[in-house]
Amino acid sequence: MATGSNDMPDHRKRNTFTSYVAPMVGDLRATADTNEWCLPSDLRDVHLAKPRLLSGEQIVASAPAYMYSPIAPMESSNSSNSNNSPNITNNSSNTTSQSNGNNGSANRLSSSHKEASFGLLSVTNFKLAFVPLHARNLLPSSASTSAAAAASSSDLYQENTFLGRNEVTLNNIDQLYTIAEQGRAASALQAARMASNSGRRKKLEPAKQQHINGRIVALHIICKNFRLLKFAFQQQDSKLSDYGKLIASALARFAFPMRHDLSFAYAYREPYYATPIPGVSMYASKNDWARELIRCGATEWQVVSASAVPQLQNRLQACKYTLPPHFVIPKGCEVERFLQLSLAFCDSRAAFWVYSYGSGGASLVRLAELQPASQQDNKLENIMLELVRKCDERRQLKLLQLTDQLPSIQDVQRAYQKLRRLCTPETPEKFMLQDDKYLGLLEKTNWLLYVSLCLRHASEAAATLRASITCVLQESNGRDLCCVISSLTQLLLDPHFRSIDGFQSLVQKEWIALEHPFQRRLGHVCVASGEQAPDSEQSPVFLLFLDCVWQLLQQFPDEFEFSQTYLTTLWDACFMPIFDSFQFDSQAQRAAAVNEAKLVLRPVWDWGEQFSDKDKLFFSNPLYQRQRGELTAAQQHHRRSLAVGGGAGGGHNNSRLLGAGAGATASPSRYTINPQLFATQSSVPQDRYLQPAHRILDLAVWEQCYYRWLPVLDIRGGGQPQVDLFHRLLLSNIAKLQRSIELQSFDELPDAYYDSQGETRQQQQRQEEDPPVEYVDGVERRRKSNPATAAANGLQQVVNGGGGALQLSTLSSFFPFGNPIAGDAPHELYDILSSSSELLLDTSSMLDKSSIV
User: Fold this and answer.
1) CA distance linking residue 131 with residue 49, whole number of Å
2) How far apart are CA 502 and CA 453, in angstroms?
C-alpha cells in the first residue's frame, strides 16, 4: 500500500511509531475505557505544562501523572445516569461530561476523563502543583461554548493569588502513602486501582528516613485541611523512569523540613510594603495593650514591656524566661517580684490579664501550672492568686482547672486524626461502609465531644464574669486550651470581637501576641525520630477553636459579621508560609528570623495580598445585625484616635510585629499611653452576651471545612450557600426600597416590587451630554461610574432575566470551595454580592433582619 494512499489510517500517515506516552491523532481505538491516555500528539509535550512560579520558588521534581478523584464513581453510576453525574468532570479544562448534542469523539473524550485528568505533577520548594493538559481544541463549537462558560464560572469560586486550584503548599501535606506496582496493567489508573484495592498502601515516614523500595504506581497525599490527593503514574519499560519514586522522594525531602529556616518563607524575598489595617490591633506595642485596658475599664492592672525590664535584657538571666514582649500583670505587684514568682510556673506563664467585664472590675486571667519541682508546695501559686484577687473590687475569684476538665493536646490530635480519616475515605467501598454507620464513627472520634466541652467551660467562664467574679483559667502551660476558652469567653461577652476586625484582633491578642506554639502544634517542622515522637506535640488546637466559633455562628447567625467561608479560609491560611502570623512559636523566634535570616514579615490579615475583592465579599455575613450607633472600622479608628492618641485600633505599623522585647521598635506613637489618665468606666456593652447550647445533640458538623473535597457529597443547588445568596438578594431589595423612599426617587425600585404589583418596568432612555474629555499626562482620563448604580442595574438585569433567568441551581453546596461547572452564572451572582455589599453599607444599622433569620 502506498504511503500517500487515502485508504491508510491518518495516524499511520503521520507516524508509524507506537507511543507509550499518548495515542496518535485520530486514533479512536485509544479512547476505549481501558486506555485513559486520550490526548492528541500535539499535546504530548508535558514539559510545556509548567506551574507558575513565585519569586524564589524553584522546581525540584516533575513527572507526567494522572490526578484522579478521591472517590472514583461507582460502577453503577458509570453505566447509568452518566450524563447527570457531577463527578464526571474533566478537571483539566473545567468542562463537564454533560455533553448534550456533542459528537462521538467529544463523548469519548469526556468518557475517558470520568475519573482523571492528565498533566504535569511538579514539586517545588513551596508547593505541590498539578498542571493539567488542556484539550479544548478537541471539542466542537457547542462544547467550546460550554468550556468557556465553565472557565468563566471558575472565576467566581475562591482563587488564591499564590495557589492554583490544583496546588497545595508543602506545609499543608501531613501524610504520604505510596502504592507499589502489583503486576502489569493495561493503564496507569488500572494499576493504581489494583494496588489500592489490594490494601498494600504504605505510609512514608520521612522522620525515620525510610528507603523507598519498589516501583510506585500511585501516591495518596493527605493534607491537614482534609484534602485527599491521588496521583497515578504511567508504567514505563525503562527502570530509570520511575516517576512515582521521583515525586515521592522529593516530597519526603521538602514537605517535612527538620528546621524552620528551610521553609519557603525564607526564600520568598518579594518586598512587602506594610500599611495599617484599620480596626485591627496587633498587640505589638505597649500602647495596644493600654488601649485594651482603657476599653475594658481595668484600672488595677499594668502593662509591662520586656524591653523596659533590665532583668529581661540581661542575656544570662533572660534565658530563664519565655515571656512575650508585652504582658499585663497586677498593678499591686512589682515587676521584679512577678518575675521571681513566674519561675515557679511552666514556661514562666504566671497570671496574665487578657480581659475585663463589667463595672465591678471582674477580670479574665490566664495562668500556667506549677513546675513539677514546685508542685509539692502550692505557696507560690497561692501568692499569685492572692495578687489577682486584690485586683477585683469584690475580692472574689474563681479558678477553673482546665487540665483536669478538658482533653489534652494528644487527645485533640487523636480526635482530629479520626475525624480526618472519616472525611477522607480511600475507595468507594470504604465510603459506603462508613456511610452506613457514620453517626457511630463520628461519635467515636470524640471531636464533637471536645467542642462541646470547650463551649461549656467558656459559658461557665462568661457566667462567672457576668456575676462580677474574676475568673482564672489554669492549664499546664497556659498557651493551648487557655487560648480556646479565653477567646470563646470574650466572643460570648463582647460584640466587638464578633466583627471581622474585632475577631482578627482577638486572634492576634490571644493566639499570636501571647504566643500559642503554632510551629509545633501545626507540624511546620518535622521532629527527628531519635529525639521525640513526630506527633507528640502536634495538635490542631486552633482548628478546635474555629470549630467552636462555627458552632456559635450557626446558633447566632445575626451576631457575627464574618461567615463560615471566612473561618474556613482562616484555617487554610495556617499553612501558607508566606505569611508569618501562624508560623512561629514565639515572638523571639520571629525576631530571630528577621534579624538573622532577613525574613520579610507579612500579616495574614492583609487579605488583599491573597484574594481579590470578589473573594473577600464572601467573608461577610449577610445576616449580621449592626446595632444603632455602632460605628464602622474607619469611624471607630478616627474616634478612638481623638480620645487616646494616634494608632489606636489600626494606627499601628504592622511591619513591626517583633515587639520591644524582640529587639525592634514596636511603638509607632510619640508617647506611651497611661491608662490611669483616662476614664475608668468600661465601654463594653453588658446586654449583648450570648448563651449558647453546648450539648452534643445541639452541635453540627462543619461541612464546608471537612467535606468540601468530597465531590460525592456535593449537592448542586443545595446547602447553606443558596440560603445566604438569596438572603443577600432580599436584603439588597430592602435597602433599595428604603433608599428610594428616603430620596423620593423611584427609578431604581427592585424588580420584586413590580412583580408584586403585576407591573412591568418601563425602561427610560436618558440621553446625557458627554462631559468634556480630560487628559492627565497626555492620557485620557476615564469617567468613574457609580458602583452602586452599576451593581443595582446588574442585579435588576438578573432578576428581570435580561439574558435568561438566574441560574443558581448548579452552585456547589460547599460554595465558594466546590468545583465549578458550566451554568453557574458567575456574573449574575457577582452582581448580587456587590450590590448587597454596597447598598447595605449605609443602611445596615437600620435594617430589621430578624424576620429572615
Assistant:
1) 6
2) 24
**pLDDT computed for residue 605 by the predictor:** 96
**Confidence class of residue 498 from pLDDT cuts 50, 70 and 90?**
very high
Least-confidence region, from 465-474, 584-593, 720-729: 720-729
Which bin fits 195, alpha (ψ -120 to 50), beta or left (φ > 0)?
Answer: alpha
For residue 201, pLDDT beyond 50: yes
Which helix (H) or strand (E) is 527 found in, with range?
none
From residue 535, alpha-carbon distances to 248, 417, 511, 520 in Å are 21, 11, 21, 9
Contacts of 682 (CB under 8 A, 6+ apart): 295, 296, 297, 356, 357, 358, 359
Question: Grid coordinates in use for 480?
Answer: 493551648
The C-alpha cell that represents 97 in the structure block:
461530561
Closest to 324 (Cα-Cα) out of 310, 343, 338, 304: 304
Give the 3-state secondary structure of residue 545: helix
**Which cell goes with 225?**
485541611
pLDDT at 698 over 50: yes
CB environment 445-460: b (16+ within 10 A), e (fewer): bbbbbbbbbbbbbbbb
Q: Which helix (H) or strand (E) holds 738?
A: helix 720-743
Select, from the ranges 58-67, 655-664, 839-848, the one with the highest average predicted confidence (pLDDT).
Answer: 58-67
SS (H, E, C) 50-91: CCCCCCCCCEEEEEEEEEECCCCCCHHHHHCCCCCCCCCEEC
Distances from the Cα of 166 to the Cα of 52, 89, 115, angstroms: 12, 14, 15
Cβ–Cβ < 8 Å for 127, 168: yes
- 116-144 exposure pattern, b = at least 16 Cβ within 10 A, e = fewer: bbbbbbbbbbbbbbbbbbbbeebbeeebe
Counting DSSP H helices and E strands in the chain, the numbers are: 29, 18
Per-chain mean pLDDT for the chain: 77
* Predicted local distance difference test score (pLDDT) of residue 586: 95
Give the pairing type, strands 470-475 and 397-401. Answer: parallel
Radius of gyration of the chain (CA): 30
Helix, strand, coil abundance in the chain, percent, nearest 5: 40, 10, 45
Residue 140: per-residue pLDDT = 41
Distance separating alpha carbons of residues 507 and 74, to the nearest angstrom: 43
Contact 220, 228 (CB under 8 A): yes
**For residue 685, is the peptide bond before it cis, meaning its omega torsion is within 30 degrees of 0?**
no
- Give CA–CA dist 507/486, Å, rounded: 11
CA distances 666 to 308, 515, 591, 656, 660, Å, are: 13, 17, 12, 5, 5
Mean pLDDT in residue range 69-77: 53
Can you tell me the distance from the alpha carbon of 550 to that of 699, in angstroms, rounded to the nearest whole number?
A: 10
Q: Is the pTM of this model over 0.90?
A: no
Q: What does DSSP assign to residue 393?
A: T
CA atoms within 13 A on the CB side of 134: 12
Which amino acid would we find at residue 292? E
**Which three three-digit cell numbers place residue 344?**
515557679
Q: What is the pLDDT of residues 526-539, one digit of tens each?
A: 876 554 454 579 99
**Per-residue pLDDT at 505:** 97
- Return the C-alpha cell found at 48: 510545556
Angle at 465 between CA 288 and CA 449, to 5 degrees: 100
Cell matching residue 123:
514539586
Q: pLDDT tens digits for 790-815?
A: 434 433 443 343 343 445 556 788 88
**Which of 239-248, 341-350, 548-557, 755-764 has the least mean pLDDT?**
755-764
Backbone angles phi, psi at 599, to 5 degrees: -70, 140
Among residues of the chain, what percentage have pLDDT more than 90? 47
d(C-alpha 256, C-alpha 170), whole Å: 8
